[in-house]
Amino acid sequence: MMIDPLSVFILLLGAATPILFAALGELVVERAGVLNLGVEGMMITGALAGFAAAHASDSPALGFVAAAIAGMAVSMTFAALTQFLLSNQVATGLALTLFGLGLTALFGKPYEGVKAPAIMPGPLGLNWMIWLGMALVPLIWWFLTRTRPGLILRAVGENHDAAHALGYPVRLVRILAIGFGGALAGMGGAYISIATVLQWTEGMTAGAGWIALAIVVFAQWNPWGVLAGAWLFGGVTVLQLRLQAAGVAVPVQLLSMAPYLATIIVLVLISARQKFGRSGAGAAPASLGRPFYALK
Amino acid sequence: MKRRTLLGSAAALMASSALPAFAQEEKLKVGFIYVGPVGDGGWTYQHDLARQAIEKEYGDRIETTYIESVPEGADAERALTQLALAGNKLIFATSFGFMDAVINVAKKFPDVKFEHATGYKRAENVATYDARFYEGRAVLGTIAGRMTKSNKIGYIGSFPIPEVIQGINSAYIHAKKVNPDVEMKVVWAYTWFDPAKEADAAAALIAEGVDVFMQHTDSTAPLAKAQEAGAFGFGQASDMTNFAPKPRVASIIDNWSPYYIKRVGEALDGTWKSHGVWLGIGDGEVVIGDITEAVPPEVKEEALALRDKIASGEYHPFTGPLNKQDGSAWLAEGQTASDEELASLNFYVEGITAPMPK
Predict the structure, then answer these.
(1) Does A103 reach chain B within 8 Å, measured CB to CB?
(2) Phi, psi (rounded to 5 degrees) for B247
(3) What is the pTM of this model?
(4) Contact between B195 and A238 using a beta-carbon 8 Å cutoff
(5) What residues in B contact A192, CB-CB < 8 Å?
(6) B212: alpha, beta or left? (left if phi > 0; alpha if psi -120 to 50)
(7) What residue ranges do the domains of chain B occupy?
(8) pLDDT for the residue numbered B20
(9) B150 and chain A in contact, CB less than 8 A
């Protein structure tokens, strides 16, 4: 059975884009020491807001802008709760997911069965969002490792007390990171409604946000790893469907399991490395999920 | 999918706590669990239409509750228990995968009546009901066989269970009848509802050269994909007329209302009994939606003639001679498949080259 690898790769890029956006956003949030489990909720909000805006304005580009704003707006509720009221980040993140799913189910009713405008094609037959997603990888890597604000963000994520003692605004850095993560998650969700599915359906992100969270761990909090993870997840999905369509007997269950298995293996490797005293690279940001509070 | 669990239990809790305050005498409470959201525009949407139909029919005599997006498996048992504890005396479980959960919960609540869609396990208080979707698939297959230019038709399957396998076989047999060169590509999505995955499955079929495909998953995403690629598709479970006249050229509609109205009526007057029914086009449970002008008139006529022949019982979509995929004999000339055989169908007919998943 011959399958054209190029066409698989093109489908793969499309399937990977929503999780790539969401995972890159979450990566920045987690590098700032905040664990936001509300990715799914922000994605679905972006999916609806983006679709609605694209439909109303007949411009997919405007749809993605609206999705970013909507994702950011929802993430700000998370920021307010966790950064000012010091609520538990895990519980708040889960609540954000539930909130997003419920809210969009309610406001999405008028958009069921409505069609979206066609997405703008870009170079090589790939749309601009695919290009933007891939361009974000080196940009975020450069920002985190080669710029001073990136260094501050990482410092806040590794040890917020020390960063605070040095005079860095821990809370502000985290709020900005959360907002950025929300914007990217929203755009990722909008990619599903505007580019992949071309319509709005309740609950349409169907767990993509959770996959994005797994990818951040799989990637060991590294943007390049996120790209690899998104391609792995997207590639497995696309490849098994293509193989099936070509009439090849594929162990679908095994293939679907593979990326999660890889994530678990990475987790084991990380903790093994820490056990043998070589922590540092690949480990989670030290202040991840811990609330920060300072009187002044 | 934790979030759905939480949503579901929250809904059920609210339903149960709201009860005592409003309890009136002898209102029949009817509960539903759905596998997808009511807004899926397909399978669950049709069940919810039927729920609304019974509310309209019986008004104040009944009260309905539903829990949507209940995952198949252990969580269904919890959702069913919640409904039973909340005082629902008749509960509809509307997906194949709820089967074991229904049987388990039914044992614990002998005075609650259960109706399970598309399953085969029954008990004193568990009835099953199903629709002969394969009858409708025969009609769609005929249209697909006539409409394809690449001679490659596709099928997006959910899970390899008898109900879906019947549909694939029926569609293929009737496409082949009108177009001997036709080839069938099958992709299993392993989900009932995941628009992104369904769209990817449609894209994979289109990339393989398929230009007409059917789906046995619940969302309209494959149709949106077909539209983008200039391929043809069919409405599934629901009419999906938003995509008419193209890419949706016809549809197979599940019409549950008559059955639900009848069974709720029986529960109200005390004549409800467990049974297993399998209703088709002739009973009005499977309906072929409007065939659009994208289909040439002679093809439309041919499809409608087949529909009428099936409805009157004159023709059975599984009529021999038919061989199994491996070439061994299945049905002899003129012989038709029995319901028992169809209910456990686990093989393709001869001519389909796609492998059957293990």
Answers:
(1) no
(2) -75, -15
(3) 0.79
(4) no
(5) 195-196
(6) beta
(7) 2-131, 133-253+287-343
(8) 47
(9) no
What is the phi-psi region of residue B120: left when phi exceeds 0, alpha when psi lies from -120 to 50, beta otherwise? alpha
Which of B1, B2, B3, B4 to mutate to test binding with chain A, by most A CBs within 10 Å of its CB? Answer: B3
The contacts of residue A158 (CB under 8 Å, 6+ apart) are: A33, A285, A286, A287
Q: Does domain B133-253+287-343 have CATH number 3.40.50.2300?
A: yes
Mutation target vs A (from B4, B5, B9, B200; most A CBs, 10 A cutoff): B200
CATH architecture, domain B2-131: 3-Layer(aba) Sandwich (3.40)
Residue B296: CB partners within 8 Å, gap ≥ 6?
B146
pLDDT of residue B23: 46
Residues of A (39-58) whose Cβ lies below 8 Å from B: 40
| Structure tokens belonging to residue B346 | 């686990």
Q: What one-character DSSP code corresponds to residue A114?
A: P
- Answer whether A249 touches B (CB < 8 Å): yes
Name the band, by pLDDT with cuts 50, 70 and 90, for residue A258: confident
The CA distance from B190 to B183, in Å, is 22
Cβ-Cβ pairs closer than 8 A, A with B, add up to: 130
- Rg (C-alpha) for chain B, rounded Å, is 21
Task: Give the Cα separation of A15 and B161 in Å (integer).
Answer: 27
Rounded Cα distance, A48 and A100, in Å: 10
State whether residue B9 sits within 8 Å of chain A by CB: no
Encoding tokens for residue B127? 């009835």
Instruction: Give residues with Cβ within 8 angstroms of B15, minimum separation 6.
Output: B65, B82, B83, B86
Q: Could you tell me how many helices (H) and strands (E) chain B has, helices first?
A: 11, 14
Q: What domains appear along chain A, each with residue ranges and CATH number? A: 5-275 (1.10.3470)
A109–B contact, CB cutoff 8 A: yes
Residue positions counted in chain B? 358
* CB of A212 less than 8 A from some CB of B: no
Distance of CA A293 to the CA centre of its chain: 27
Walk along chain B (358 residues) in steps of 10 and give the mean pLDDT of each run.
Answer: 51 49 69 88 89 94 93 90 95 94 95 92 93 93 93 92 92 93 91 86 90 89 87 86 84 92 94 92 90 91 93 92 91 90 90 85
Checking ipTM against 0.85, whether it exceeds it is: no
d(CA B351, CA B184): 8
Min Cα–Cα distance to chain A from B201, Å: 6
Any A CB within 8 A of B220 CB:
yes
Closest A-chain CA to B228: A118
**Is the minimum CB–CB distance between A197 and chain B shorter than 8 Å?**
yes
Q: Where are the alpha helices (DSSP H) in B179-296?
A: 195-207, 221-229, 257-268
Cβ contact, residue pair B354, A244, below 8 Å: yes
Please tell me if residue A113 touches chain B, with a CB cutoff of 8 Å.
yes
Number of alpha carbons in the 13 Å side-chain half-sphere of residue B146 = 19
Considering only residues 88 to 147 of chain B, which have any Cβ-Cβ distance to chain A shorter than 8 Å? none
